[in-house]
Amino acid sequence: MSFTMHGVAVSSGIAIGHAHLVSHALLEVVHYQVPKHLIDQEIKRFEQAVEKVKQDLDVIRRHLPAGSPAELGAFVNTHLMILADKQLSEDPKRIIREEQCNAEWAIKQQMDDLVLQFEQIEDEYLRERKQDVVQVVERVIKVLLGHPSQVAVKEQESAIILVAHDLSPADAIQFKQHQFAAFITDVGGATSHTAILARSLNIPSIVALQRARDLIRDGELIIVDGNQGVVIANPDKDTLAEYKLRQEQWELEQQKLKRLKLTKAVTLDGTTIELHANIEVPEDVTQAKAAGATGVGLYRTEFLFMNRREMPDEEEQYKAYRRVAEAMKGMPVTIRTLDLGADKQINPDTVRTCANPALGLRAIRLCLSEPHIFHTQLRAILRASHYGKIKILIPMLSNLSELRQAMLLLDRAKISLRNEGIPFDEGIQVGGMIEVPAAALCAEAFAKQLDFLSIGTNDLIQYSLAIDRTDDSVSHLYNPLHPAILQLIEMTIRAGHKLGKPVSVCGEMAGDTKLTRLLLSFGLRQFSMHPSHILAVKRQILQSDLPNLANAARKILGNQDIDRIEPMLHKLNLA
Ligand code: PEP
Ligand code: MG
Fold first, then answer.
1. Which of 144, 179, 204 is the last residue of a domain?
2. Active site residue 101
3. Of all protein residues, whose CA lies closest to atom 1 belonging to ligand 1?
4. Residue 487 neighbours by CB distance under 10 Å
5. Fewest beta carbons less than 10 Å away: which of 4, 299, 378, 428?
6. Ligand 1 in contact with 506 (CB < 6 A)?
């Protein structure tokens, strides 16, 4: 039966493919005793499940879509090897017999043992393979639970759509390595870090679908319309044809936009606008350059710290930062110091339990309380600054005292490098993120002490409107057009201009074409966004005339009624 679901679109495009449910099967495993006379049957059930998973993996391996990255084949091979290992395919049978327990429980015991063994391995890469063991066992358990994975990987219909209840940013960053056609979840806000990562996968994504994980079956054909926030499961023939057409039109439109890659972002009246990219990992530079970004406006370094047991050391960080600086070939690279905490935890298993994580020890607060971590990162950034045009960006500043402490620690890092004769850019610029309302209200004071400001609208909205950006139950209230938000943004841009300091917006508002003219009219001249938005924003800039916008901007800013802003904005965009 066909059905439609509505959610919050976080990444545009249209995908048509088969659902792959991200399993919570491991959580469903229960332990029960199996009567002696049924033990042989239980062992048979186990053998059949292993055989079924083996066949499924084999089918996937044989039908990898043309042009799939080589890692995908290797990934399936690794899973087949893990499955064939005696500890997973043979030993559980002994456990079933000896302990007279159910098959799910037996293989789960083996998995726990194996994961422990992996955790003791010195080699970082091999240690991380424990995740593969877990994924393989999950597959077997799913079959055992009567939910056979039917990811029907047929030659013509090879697109796979991830369906999850929720994914942490740490989970999502792992999916960056694999190829999926779309990504949908039950919960999450449009500017949660998981959504931001989903966007950086550059595939259609929808969050806040409420019950997608329950209602959609594994292997079912689904349409994901990331433009409208709509998911259609089991579409009929006509709907499928309609969406295939829309998909083609969308792709054509994207091709047309690509022609703007080398066009300078200049308004009709001749004002040049900088369009920078937000990146999460060094590999994202490729996409940033392909979109014609003239710099990296926000490098979220915390993703280097996720899904691992130890922190990356100075050398590893230095190499990553240097790689980005060199790849950008003299264009500015704004490296944000660690913004860990709140919804971005290093490892979801080690989440600190605190009542209000978003208001807790995150970002610069965490760095100032763990100065050795900050020192290591600052040294790594400084060392990399010798190889490109690096700038430092400090997140979540709320008062000048934090800024002074951070600058003191930066000086210390510089002194340590000078003492060792290690070169770095002595003139490296330091900027601060304005994302706490208190900082926006004191923007002039920050602008005096810093070389530049960058407005983090995602957090600015969260903290000004008292709305958890990850909570879909209040996502309807998360409104960038709230008059208070517009005033805080305009006030910050004005403060920067007054002191001759550049101001950029690096939150999600910068990539929303409906807001481009509004931000231009507030005086914004530098935007930083996910690379997939750059060309569409550029097109909007090319069609905008700044003197024409001034009046409308004044009217919008003078208005305090949220309901009147949308129509005013509409008018501004038609001007
Ligand atoms: C923001 O808050 O707008 C921002 C850019 O930072 P992040 O989304 O990483 O919190
Ligand atoms: Mg932020």
1. 144
2. no
3. 456
4. 17
5. 4
6. yes
Q: Which residue has the tokens 């593969």?
A: 132
Instruction: Indicate the SS3 state at residue 37.
Output: helix
What H or E segment, with its residue span, contains residue 449?
Answer: helix 443-449
Domain residues for the domain of 205 are: 3-22+151-237
Q: Contact, 453 vs 463, CB < 8 A?
A: no
Distance CA(297)–CA(454), nearest Å, equals 9
Q: Kindly report the pTM of this predicted structure.
A: 0.75
Catalytic residue selected from 20, 482, 506, 530: 506
Same domain, 386 and 526: yes
Q: Which residue has the tokens 């042989």?
A: 40
Question: Coil, strand, or helix at residue 335?
Answer: strand
Residues with CB under 5 A from ligand 2 (ion): 435, 456, 459
Same domain assignment for residues 233 and 362: no
**What helix, strand, coil percent values describe the chain, rounded to 5?**
55, 15, 35
Is 193 marked active-site? yes
Atom of ligand 1 nearest to the CA of 507: 3
Alpha helices per DSSP H over 18-102: 39-62, 70-84, 86-89, 91-99
Q: Has residue 434 been placed in a domain?
A: yes
Rounded average pLDDT per 10-residue block, the chain, 575 residues: 90 90 60 83 93 88 71 79 92 93 88 84 75 84 64 47 78 62 85 75 87 87 94 95 95 93 97 97 92 97 82 96 97 96 62 75 93 97 98 98 98 98 98 98 98 98 94 88 98 98 97 96 97 95 95 93 94 90
